[in-house]
Amino acid sequence: MLLPAAVAFDSSREGQEELDICDDIREKKSDFCNFDHERRGSKIGTLKKKALTASNKFTHTLKRRGKREFDYRVPSVSIEDIRHAEEEGAVLELRQRLLDRDLLPPRQDDYYTLLRFLTARDFDIDKTIWMWKEMLTWRKEYGTDTILQDFEFEELEEVLHYYPQGYHGVDKEGRPIYIERLGNDHLSKLMYITSIDPT
């Protein structure tokens, strides 16, 4: 009879050891969870600080007073220039015919612009010339070539106050960054100072 009691005693000790091991594992998990929670909290705090700093910088750029001059030029990007012989011949012929008729302003004298018009009319040069004339008439009628110099945006400061947005520098690749602070817009107030009417 002693033997079974000794075995029972040993099995209870093994059960206690297993409980102790489980307790150790729980404590380690708890410590890791607390550490992980603290680490996440510090990350969120850091991100929150970065977001507030960026927001403050953006707000500061929107609040600058005085006449704003916008530079809409984008940094140049090198693109491989691949031209096909047939297309190039058609573009040269169109260019020469436009020059003969005095329909090629220097601003529109661009290989790819001419190619785009030719493509739109299936390389039919007569139809392309008609389309080109219509385009020049439209540009003259609406003043598109001088709109950046002629347009006066008198309510710009008020518009930016009720609809904060704008370009804010460029990214690492040189692409412009556009930010809209949609949570701070007041479209009903915006309609009092301006309208959607283009005139």
From TrEMBL:
Main location group: membrane
Membrane topology: Peripheral membrane protein
InterPro entries: CRAL-TRIO_dom_sf (IPR036865), CRAL/TRIO_N_dom (IPR011074), CRAL/TRIO_N_dom_sf (IPR036273), PI/PC_transfer (IPR051026)
Leader sequence residues: none
Domain CRAL/TRIO N-terminal: 110-135
GO cellular component term of the entry, any: endomembrane system
Domain of life per record: Eukaryota
SUPFAM superfamilies registered for this protein in UniProt: CRAL/TRIO domain (SSF52087), CRAL/TRIO N-terminal domain (SSF46938)
Subcellular location: Endomembrane system
PANTHER family, A to Z: CRAL-TRIO DOMAIN-CONTAINING PROTEIN YKL091C-RELATED, PHOSPHATIDYLINOSITOL_PHOSPHATIDYLCHOLINE TRANSFER PROTEIN SFH13
Protein name: CRAL/TRIO N-terminal domain-containing protein
